[in-house]
Amino acid sequence: MTNPPAGPRCSFCGKPAPEVDQLVAGPGVQICNECVGLAVSVIDAHRDKPAPAPMPLWTSMADEEMLHHIPRVAAVADQVEADLRAWVAELRSRGVTWARIGGALGVSRQSAWERFSGEE
After folding, report:
1. Does the pTM exceed 0.70?
2. Given Cys at both, which of 32, 33, 88, 103 links 22, Cβ 3.0 to 4.6 Å?
3. What's the pLDDT tens digit per position in 76-116?
4. What CA–CA distance (Å, rounded) separates 25 from 117?
């Protein structure tokens, strides 16, 4: 099995940027034009109806489909972690303390430092 390409990818379907027309970025996530279109069609189809309970994507997938999809899920997790590290690095470059960063993440100053400082 090959690893999915590195770089930006849709946080919803996991497709890398070269496989879609456009990615829209948010804090730690991206969504492709295809997923935006799907979301719009779902919203339009359910307008003025009670929202259904969300179901995990895998409820409609066979085992092989899930196995094919999990490298994309892992790549999205790596992308989110890289984005989080970049945000923390920017905050540190602005002089924001580890205590404030930890507080924003709901962890201790020490935990934030251990996760993001790169020091041991």
Report:
1. no
2. 33
3. 888 889 889 999 999 999 999 999 999 999 999 999 999 99
4. 25
